């Protein structure tokens, strides 16, 4: 059978009325930019792309050279496409409207240009995460940050490209979650797993255990029960994985199940979590839900959060349906003495 390329897949989706021609073209432009990023990542030291850029981003985080390079590649590719009103990036303070001299469209694109960038210099998988929203009509000519503040369930597409042993694209337009593998010789993405399904139950969790002492009591109690294994209340042994690249941890969960957690912790109580709602939690949440999993703050569905800011952070629990529900039970306010911690959205 002929392999299904991404181009053919998108044309078929358009033919069935599931996406518009504009969205098809926008996704193609984003994926082309990801292919360029993949080449830059793959060159490593030979391309002079490793190490720090000597700059910081809006979050006060040190930027790697590849953070900046990837951001520029995505901005450049999308400036002239004609399908966008504006882009917003984890690496930029505010949204960037498409320059006046270029044609505009009515989509908004958000991205984390290089997620997991602390892993670049040690040759561990990193990736690009993206999310597409529709721009409210009043914002098309003069898009501002506020036009991006839409809940995750309003996303018209979301995806990530993982730069690992293989470069893969995982995409949803609201009709299932599908994986494509880059054929490096041909420069084409080929559909390699249609309709990914996350097993409902799992015995594998992903969390940065070094934060344990900073967690709130509910989180402490949940993970203690996982660690107690078959002798504890869960009655089974759990395995743990933590890659510290969300794309890689989520990719494993989409492939074989598991729960991924980045909860609130009191290292900096003003932050509601480490991960960003608009660039990480929402797109990953849609991909996971479209694969039969759940995405939660522990207390509420991530995709229902009404965003307050472009760089807002949230606690994240996502993956196998049964296990996310098990985690959520620890956060239910049955015990009034365990009230919500400051900064944690209820
Ligand atoms: P980044 O977007 O600056 O790379 O940060 C997000 C990353 C996620 O990919 C990963 O899950 C998490 O931060 C790792 O955090 P930690 O360093 O606490 O393990
Ligand atoms: Mg990130």
TrEMBL record:
Mg(2+) 2 binds at residues 112, 115, 280. It comes from the Bacteria. Substrate binds at residues 115-118, 208, 274. Binds 2 magnesium ions per subunit. Its cofactor is Mg(2+). It is found in: Cytoplasm. Its EC number is 3.1.3.11. The keyword Transmembrane does not apply. Keywords: Carbohydrate metabolism, Cytoplasm, Hydrolase, Magnesium, Metal-binding. The keyword Ribonucleoprotein does not apply. Residues 198-331 form the Fructose-1-6-bisphosphatase class 1 C-terminal domain. One of its GO terms (cellular component) is cytosol. Pathway: Carbohydrate biosynthesis; gluconeogenesis. Pfam families: FBPase, FBPase_C. It catalyses: beta-D-fructose 1,6-bisphosphate + H2O = beta-D-fructose 6-phosphate + phosphate. GO terms for molecular function: fructose 1,6-bisphosphate 1-phosphatase activity; magnesium ion binding. One of its GO terms (biological process) is fructose 1,6-bisphosphate metabolic process. Residues 5-193 form the Fructose-1-6-bisphosphatase class I N-terminal domain. Mg(2+) 1 binds at residues 90, 112, 114. NCBIfam families: PRK09293.1-3 (NF006779), PRK09293.1-4 (NF006780). Homotetramer. Belongs to the FBPase class 1 family. PANTHER family: FRUCTOSE-1,6-BISPHOSPHATASE-RELATED (PTHR11556), SEDOHEPTULOSE-1,7-BISPHOSPHATASE, CHLOROPLASTIC (PTHR11556:SF35). This is Fructose-1,6-bisphosphatase class 1. It comes from Pseudoxanthomonas spadix (strain BD-a59).
């Amino acid at each position: 059978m002929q392999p299904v390329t991404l181009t053919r897949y998108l044309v078929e989706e358009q033919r069935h009325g599931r996406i518009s021609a504009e969205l098809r073209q926008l996704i193609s432009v984003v994926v082309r930019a990801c292919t360029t990023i993949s080449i830059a990542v793959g060159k490593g030291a030979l391309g002079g792309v490793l190490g720090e850029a000597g700059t910081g981003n809006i979050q006060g985080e040190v930027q790697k050279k590849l953070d900046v390079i990837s951001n520029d590649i995505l901005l450049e590719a999308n400036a002239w496409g004609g399908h966008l009103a504006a882009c917003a990036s984890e690496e930029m303070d505010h949204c960037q409207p498409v320059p006046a001299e270029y044609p505009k469209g009515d989509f908004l694109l958000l991205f984390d240009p290089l997620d997991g960038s602390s892993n670049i210099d040690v040759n561990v998988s990193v990736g690009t995460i993206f999310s597409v929203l529709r721009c409210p009509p009043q914002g098309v000519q003069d898009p501002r940050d506020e036009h991006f503040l839409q809940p995750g369930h309003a996303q018209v597409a979301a995806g990530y490209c993982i730069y690992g042993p293989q470069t893969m694209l995982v995409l949803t337009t609201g009709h299932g979650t599908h994986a494509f593998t880059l054929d490096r010789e041909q420069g084409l993405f080929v559909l390699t797993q249609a309709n990914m399904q996350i097993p409902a139950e799992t015995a594998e969790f992903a969390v940065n255990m070094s934060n344990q002492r900073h967690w709130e009591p509910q989180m402490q109690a949940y993970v203690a029960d996982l660690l107690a294994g078959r002798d504890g209340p869960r009655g089974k042994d759990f395995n743990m994985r933590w890659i510290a690249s969300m794309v890689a941890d989520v990719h494993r969960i989409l492939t074989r199940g598991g729960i991924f957690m980045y909860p609130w912790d009191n290292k900096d109580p003003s932050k509601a979590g480490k991960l960003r709602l608009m660039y990480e939690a929402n797109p990953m949440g849609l991909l996971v839900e479209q694969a039969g999993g759940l995405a939660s703050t522990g207390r509420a569905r991530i995709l229902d959060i009404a965003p307050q800011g472009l760089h807002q952070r949230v606690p994240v629990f996502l993956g196998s349906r049964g296990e996310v529900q098990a985690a959520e039970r620890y956060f239910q306010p049955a015990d009034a003495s365990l009230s919500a911690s400051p900064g944690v959205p209820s």
